[in-house]
Amino acid sequence: MDRWVNIGIAWLIIAAVAFIQERSRVLAGILAAMPLSIPLAMWIVYAETRDLEQTAHFTRATFLALIPSLGFVLAAWLLLARRVPFGWSLVGGYAVWLGVLLVWRWLGILR
After folding, report:
1. Quick one: how far is CA 53 from the chain centroid?
2. Residues in Cβ contact with 85 at an 8 Å cutoff, skipping those fewer than 6 apart
3. Domain segments of the chain: what residues?
4. Tell me, what DSSP letter sits at residue 47?
């Protein structure tokens, strides 16, 4: 039941971003960047395992995965600022995200 409450809250925040973005792009950006899925995923891992060490390992991997996500946002922002069409900007952002993940995997940073 708690899982559905968390999912409902996430959907409400997404709806709030859609509503607020008409008034304040900055506030909408802050809401969009709120850690929603991370605590939900941490809770799922902990609830399934009841193991703080496994949850900590998962959280470390999540932390390391934030850097490729920042690469996605940076690439998409730069492409959009150069007036690259929206869809291609997303493709470019995902390409950077995947590229960083693959390099990190190859280097053994993410196992």
Report:
1. 23
2. none
3. 52-111
4. H
